[in-house]
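User: Fold this; tokens only.

Assistant: Input:
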Amino acid sequence: MSSNFVDSQGGTLAVALAELEGHLSEVLKEVRHLRALARALEEENQRLRTIMFADQAGEGGYQQLLRFYEEGFHVCPPHFARVRDGEGCLFCQSFLEKKGLQSHG
């Protein structure tokens, strides 16, 4: 009995299996990449939680948001906790201004 069975497209089973192994290898490579990305995001999330919930004596919510913004993160609702690109954010600044006026007025 021959090991080169012919499939309906005229190719061999061995060729089809080799292609499948190649695809599987690509999928496994992508899974490893996604796992590393997920791990990095989990670490970043933990770091952000530590910053957000740091026990600051006498620091209110507005001060925490201001500190968070000054450390380079968005505090505006559309982009909250995302890293800013180094530039100021008009949404964040407007949000902080509104919050600051509410807390002082």
